[in-house]
Design goal:
Elements (H helix, E strand, L loop, with lengths): L5 E6 L5 H15 L4 H21 L8 E8 L2 E8 L25 H10 L2 E7 L2 E9 L5
Antiparallel strand pairs: 1-2, 2-3, 3-5, 4-5
Length: 142
């Protein structure tokens, strides 16, 4: 039986959900046959995106955070959807990486990490929902 090319997770807007997110990514690493480098990049980027939604989004978001993974054609797509504050990380100014955590602005380090580890990052706001799609190259079978 081949692994399901789609995986889904719904998270509440609570910081303790980051532990559940990490466990989920680690569990699907084998199910989807992800190389360790891709699994590491995926976990890091998803944790940064979700933490920013939880910690820096305003109280307007009422629903949960939905994450969908899809593996196809040697790529892994991760979609993060929420209904909170609109922020497009793809338009944030690309700066030199912060020298230290103390030098990083709110959310800036997460955006830098996503740009570093994801081969593509796209944002869309549609019908009141934010969708951030991260693409990771070299998934299993690539």
């Amino acid at each position: 039986m081949s692994p399901d090319p789609h995986e889904q997770l719904t998270l509440k807007r609570e910081l303790n959900e980051l532990d559940r997110l990490a466990a989920w990514v680690q569990a699907i690493e084998q199910r989807m046959g992800l190389p360790p480098a891709v699994a590491f990049a995926l976990e890091l980027c998803l944790e940064e995106a979700v933490a920013n939604i939880i910690m820096y989004g305003d109280a307007s978001g009422h629903g949960d955070i939905a994450i969908t993974l899809e593996q196809a054609s040697g790529r892994l797509l991760a979609r993060i959807e929420d209904d909170g504050w609109q922020f497009d990380p793809t338009t944030a100014a690309q700066r030199v990486p912060p020298r230290s955590l103390d030098d990083a602005k709110v959310g800036e380090l997460g955006i830098h990490l996503m740009r570093t580890f994801a081969s593509d990052m796209r944002y869309e706001r549609k019908s009141g929902y934010n969708t951030l799609t991260l693409t990771f190259a070299a998934a299993a079978g690539a």
